[in-house]
Amino acid sequence: MSAPQPTIPALVNFGGQPVHAPAGEPLLRAEHVTVRFGGVVAVRDISLAVRPGEIVGLIGPNGAGKTTLFNALTGFVRASEGRVTFAGRDITHLQPQVRAKMGMARTFQVERPFEDLSVLENVLVAAFLNRRGRAAENHAYDVLERVGLADRAAQPASQLNLARRRRLEIAKALALEPRMLFLDESIAGLNPPAQQEMVALVRQLAQSGLGIVMVEHIMHVIMSLSDHVICMAFGELLAEGDPKHVAAHPDVIRAYLGDDDD
Ligand SMILES: Nc1ncnc2c1ncn2[C@@H]1O[C@H](COP(=O)(O)OP(=O)(O)OP(=O)(O)O)[C@@H](O)[C@H]1O
């Protein structure tokens, strides 16, 4: 009889099916990206591609390099080597705000709305980048509808609970009318019903055609949402592929559980 395979319940018992992986030309490509901070190699030789409507999940233990890779894709840190392209254009050396204007919007792990402004005004600040007057206002309302915050439009951002603050963060990103959305731990810290709502929202956004890259620690969430998962450890690629493949990969199991000799 063969020895039983090790399993990680949080990795293998994820509910729901990932959205069918969209085909077609990638919108975003990272090729052999390396990021160094002095002597530390935070990301080493990582490549990925994201198509419209596709959700790519970045996972890995603490310090794996997920945030650094995410920041290299969005322009918040400089890639030391490699290339990033968006819609066929080399963006490796472009500033974050230029990337945002081109259609790459991100959220931040610690959300920072203008606390004294209303929910609508917070979204308007972003909507004004591309539109003026009534058109900006209508767009901001549409975005609030899309994320389920329309009934909170007049409320000061300071009064929102965590789940709604996370939605506001997504609304601000959507107000830029992006083609790609980068979500930095939008679901961690929420209670299970709020997690489910956020999962449904992210799925809807992908189904509307947005390409999505998400960093998330909650394994069952990323496994149920992602079309493609990239698992990193110590800055390097450990495994990638569809969620089932990655969850069953011996190196991934080892990275999360540790070796017996560790
Ligand atoms: N600005 C920086 N200067 C120097 N070292 C950094 C910097 N940012 C990250 N690092 C280092 O790079 C490595 C990867 O860190 P990173 O934050 O990208 O990992 P992570 O996978 O996002 O971790 P976590 O899940 O804990 O957020 C770590 O060793 C970290 O200490």
Name the helicity range. Answer: 25-40%
Unique bound compounds: adenosine-5'-triphosphate
Our count of helices gives: 10
Note the main sheet. Answer: 6 strands, mixed
Question: Which structural class do the helices and strands define?
Answer: alpha/beta
CATH architecture of the domain at 1-6 and 24-94 and 225-255: 3-Layer(aba) Sandwich
Strand order of the largest sheet: 6-7-8-3-9-10
Following the backbone from N to C, one meets helices and strands in this order, namely HEEEHEEHEHHHEHEHEEHH
Share in β-strands: 15-25%
Total number of beta strands: 10
Kindly identify the CATH topology of the domain at 1-6 and 24-94 and 225-255. Answer: Rossmann fold
Radius of gyration: 19 Å
Global morphology? globular
Q: Calculate the terminal CA-CA distance, rounded to whole Å.
A: 27 Å
